[in-house]
From TrEMBL:
GO terms for cellular component: cytosol. GO terms for biological process: iron-sulfur cluster assembly. One of its GO terms (molecular function) is ATP binding. It comes from Toxostoma redivivum (California thrasher). Gene3D superfamilies: P-loop containing nucleotide triphosphate hydrolases. PROSITE patterns: MRP. This is NUBP2 factor. Pfam families: ParA (PF10609). The keyword RNA-binding does not apply. Keywords: 4Fe-4S, ATP-binding, Iron, Iron-sulfur, Metal-binding, Nucleotide-binding.
Length: 161
C-alpha cells in the first residue's frame, strides 16, 4: 500500500535480530548494535516486536515515554540527548510498562503490521527489528510485512549449549 512505501521509503537497510529460544541476548544485541551504528554516524531505528516482553524501552531508559501521532502515523520515541535513535515498542502503548500482553496471534499480527505501516520512521540508515523468542507467528508476520522492503538480512543469536 502507499502508506507502507511512504513510511519505510527513507529506510535504507532493515535487519532482523532473532533466535530460536529466549534469554540469549537478542534485545541486548539489538540495543548494542543500534548504539554502535549510531556512534559510527548512522541514523538508526529499533522496532521492538517482542510484544510479550518489550525490554528495549527499559534498556534505553525511555520506558516512561509516550508515542504521539502525526499526519503519517505514529512518531517513534527518540532516545538520548541527541535524539539519535528512533524506537517503537508496544511498551509505549501500555498503561503501565510492566503490564502483561496476553493476546492471541491475530491481534499480535495486526499490531506488527501496524508497526510496519504506521510508524513515521523518516530517513534511517538502519532499522533494527528485535523479535520475540522462538519461531512463532510474530516472525512470519514481521517478515511478510517487511518483504516488499527488501530486508538487509538477519542476525541469528545463539548460545554454545
Amino acid at each position: 500500500t502507499p502508506a507502507e512505501r511512504t513510511n519505510l521509503a527513507g529506510v535504507r537497510h532493515i535487519l532482523l535480530v532473532l533466535s530460536g529460544k529466549g534469554g540469549v541476548g537478542k534485545s541486548t544485541l539489538s540495543t548494542e548494535l543500534a548504539l554502535a551504528l549510531c556512534n559510527a554516524g548512522k541514523r538508526v531505528g529499533i522496532l521492538d516486536v517482542d510484544l510479550c516482553g518489550p525490554s528495549i524501552p527499559r534498556m534505553l531508559r525511555v520506558q516512561d515515554s509516550a508515542v504521539h501521532q502525526c499526519d503519517s502515523g505514529w512518531v517513534p520515541v527518540f532516545v538520548g540527548q541527541d535524539k539519535a535513535i528512533a524506537l517503537m515498542s508496544i511498551g509505549f502503548l501500555l498503561e503501565r510498562p510492566d503490564d502483561a500482553v496476553v493476546w492471541r496471534g491475530p491481534k499480535k499480527n495486526a499490531l506488527i503490521k501496524q508497526f510496519v505501516t504506521d510508524v513515521a520512521w523518516g530517513d534511517l540508515d538502519f532499522l533494527i527489528v528485535d523479535t520475540p523468542p522462538g519461531t512463532s507467528d510474530e516472525h512470519i508476520s514481521t517478515v511478510e510485512a517487511l518483504r516488499p522492503h527488501q530486508l538487509l538480512g538477519a542476525v541469528l543469536v545463539t548460545t554454545p549449549q
